[in-house]
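[PROTEIN RECORD]
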Amino acid sequence: MRPRLALVPGEPAGIGPELVVRALRQEFDAELVVFGDAAALQRAARALSLPLELHRAGEAPASPRSTGIVDIPHPMAAAFGTPEPANAASVVQALLAAAQACVEGTCHGIVTGPVHKAAINDGGIAFTGTTGLLAAHAGREVVMMLANDIVRVALLTVHLPLRAVADAVTPAALATTLRIVDAALRGDFGIAEPTIAVLGLNPHAGEAGHLGREELDIIEPTLQRLRGEGLRLAGPLPADTAFLPGKLRGFDAVLAMYHDQGLPVLKYSDFAHAVNISLGLPYPRVAVDHGTALELAGTGMADPSSLLAAINACARFARNRMHA
């Protein structure tokens, strides 16, 4: 049985719809069902001069080339490159409908295109991101991981001002995050005994307390306690040398303390094929690792590599869960 994946294009004025159109012309080891606005997809297909066949999800397709869609119309047809706040509710509704389909078991995972946070907030919906939306819907604590074929980087803190990061590095947060990452590596990635490299917060991992005591007082004691639970953890490691290729070969993932500690390395290593994974949800969710690229919308120049990688990753995770 192939997994059925919910594919959500995201912001209709951005490159999401055309990336989806390109993706639907590829073969995957999964059935794709689009949750979004059929008219926006057809407009993107016309801009790309590509054929697109859609049918209502649950009904018989007219041809093998047709893709099922749960049509969630936008109240306004947004021009390429110009987000329309009036569409905020329908963009969010598509995400929640896909999430509910996974909770109910009619879909086995979600792949999401980029959304425009400012347009959603301008539309009157308090929105910090898709990850937070799906976590709240599922009632789960979620960890963000970005991954490509070179490195997997999970984040203890995400979009925090740098001066707030140190206060957020707590034993409870660290333990919860590492347990979620370990479980995902075992379940979704199929790694029997994963090893996680944990970065220090301070330069040189605190240099024995001379450059900060978070490593001595918080990180190391927490790692020791989790090692007693069976987790394989290395660290706390200095971030400036932990990503050396020779060291990375011994790790299945890296936990960074904050956003810009780990993600620049990942994006430099292979940005085009990087994906954003939400660990801890009751279903796999994988997103593209780029924004709406409003300036490229409608030009046909957007690279679909990240979306294709996200679909393949989500299909693999869904199969692993189905066969567990």
The two ends are 14 Å apart (CA to CA). The chain has two domains: 1-140+281-324, 141-279. The mean pLDDT is 97. The first strand starts at residue 4 and ends at 8.
